[in-house]
# Entry
Amino acid sequence: MEVIFLLIGVSVCLALVFLYAFFWANKSGQFEDDVTPAYRILFDDNEEEENSSKQE
Amino acid sequence: MGQFYSLDDNAGVRPVSRSKHTYKYLENEELANELLDFREGESSRITILLPQIHCASCVWLLENIHKLNKGIISSEVNFVNKRASIHFKHQEISLKELAELLDRIGYAPKFDSPEKHSSKVKRDLVLKLAVAGFCFGNIMLLSFPEYLNPDEDFVGKFRSIFSYIILGLSLPVLVYSASDYLKSAFKAVKAKAINLDVPISIGIAVLYGRSVYDIFAGNGPGYMDSFAGFVFFLLIGKWFQQKTYDYLSFDRDYTSYFPMAVSRLNENGDEEVVKIGSINQGDLIRIHNEEVIPADAELLSGDAHINYSFVTGESELIHKHKGDLLFAGGRLHGESVEIRIKKKVNQSYLTQLWESAGEKDCQKGSLQELTDSLGRRFTLIVIIIAILAGAIWYYIEPSNVINIVTSVLIVACPCALALSVPFTFGNAQRLLGRKGIYFKNADAIERLAHVDTVVFDKTGTLSETDGYRIRFVGEELTNGVREAIASLVANSNHPLSKALSAHFKDSKLHNKTVSSFREHIGKGLSGNYDGKHLLIGSPEFVGALPVDNLTSVFISLDGEILGHYVFESTFRPGLENMFNSLHSAFDVHVLSGDSEKDKLAISDQYNIANMAFKQSPQDKLKYIENLQKHGKRVLMLGDGLNDAGALMKSDVGISVAEDIYNFSPACDAIVEANKLHSLFRYISISKYAVRLLKYSYIFSLIYNLTGLGFAVFNLLNPLVAAIIMPLSSISVVALTYLGTVWYERRVYKWN
# Structure
């Protein structure tokens, strides 16, 4: 059962990594605006490509 | 561009463009630099508020704006804040050109509120919440063996090592997550004022101290799970409050109406653009057509026609002569004039009015007082119970005294009580927001529930801002004359001309060409039609006898008076029902800056006895003060700056706005103009919220009493605490949420 010490250590470290990831995401402003990116994904990146495909 | 219209059904609903806005002030280098986020080498970045953003296609258009002008490198839209961050080369496109470009495509930019508020506080709270949540989860997991029989071999083996890991995990909760509460309580105690944070902090401190003792004494991890959970729930409450606030925040003040810069004349008579803050008493200023008078000033050149609709609500132009004093806030119509500033901007009439009534903000809301007084009493009672229980146990079993006293302090910690206010009023605030009224803070909801007098401003509140019912008095006009009138008024910017023009639009007249059109500002319009001289305007201008108490425009053709148009304000729909329900419970008053022309219409239609006319902003303020002196709690509804003083003075000031993003003076709430008729329901919601708050207070007190029962009989072990404390918090959150939802569903099936 001693393996449980190792497992707990590993799980806490893993959880800390996620906590750090959250800190980073929050700091880099990823939660500032949760609406626009959802719209932005609908926009085509390249208008020229769109036009050329229409002509075909 | 095909994509633009395919993204959203609302695309092409062109946001209102106000091309008359001039952006000349942006030429001022100093001012422009203040507005920029940064300027480096060839490129600059600016974040601009664009209130017109309303759909996905707006985002697309604004993010592709670099295709319209080569000077723009890129742009990024934040839909939630309605802001665009634009990166541009300032050598190729100046800030002024950028502003004009945005205006041209329909997004009139607002520069008046440069992003001052940093989101740092908000982010910090989220991080604190994250840390608390993280530690709470892990501590619970590691405490699990404790909930089983701790004497079993399997558990005993890990007990002490788990305890120390838990101790390590709980440390960040104490020093980081809970720091705000501890600091606030410390400050309160230092100032000898006890608020609700004091019992909370006592609870936190005792909980933590006792647990640390247990850990070092080898008794297991103590109450660390309750401690972390407790802080976590408190922070959720705070976060929810913040979220609600963000969702409804609309801070814009009266200065946004004033221009940011004006043209000052220097000694040589040249115009220079200067920031509004740097104009002084005695400066010569040139005001152009459609510009706002920034401060009280003396008119130096010729005549001026000024629209004071913003100040008085009266949309008719006021004629001023050379040497007259012009009050700040008027908008000039016609040729540019020169004025000499009499008072600095911050001393002018309007701002004075504003500030004299602005003290309400400084006073603490009654809600905060209620919570604080509750906190005081609570602390006192808890300490008394702790001492009593300790004293009694001293005789029964002296070794248990410490145990009992700490248990009492732990379980009495008013977590659920602290959550009651943010959740009850947060939910109510959101519900009201969905129904078209936006509260700035929760206190106002509580004050609204206790209102007994309702005062309405007439212009712009009861009546529509530019809606007129127009009828013609006189012999019916021939189509030809009407066509001629229609094309004459189409050329003018006067509010009445615009209304008349809109009136003719409905009747589908062909535009006749009228030659030698002239606008005589403040008098009327003239032109030639079929070789005859057509005059439209005031009775003096046309040569007719004036009509009392009616806004009217006269028509004459070659000196013969054909008749006049009468303009009557139209009232918003649904008001009759609103007044009927209001009369049953409130004292209703109506104030107006206008003449008595609508008196009969209001008193007959809405059955209102208390009315006052020709009220200046100062009069309105006094009227409210007078009511308050008689012990009334007053709700005031108005539309803008002209009743700003009254709005601020009243117990609750609600501003009625056609466009909630456009202009919102400092008030407690903003209601959408077309939702005004639901006023009675809004008050009912606020009353319900106060009732709900009381229920949740009772609820959380019951929990605390139950916990105290356990504590004084020495039955509070960590397991019981770990169940009772989160349960009380969660049930208060659930009660307030479900209560609000239930109310919305059952009682109000509107929408």
About this structure: The first helix of chain A runs from residue 3 to 27.
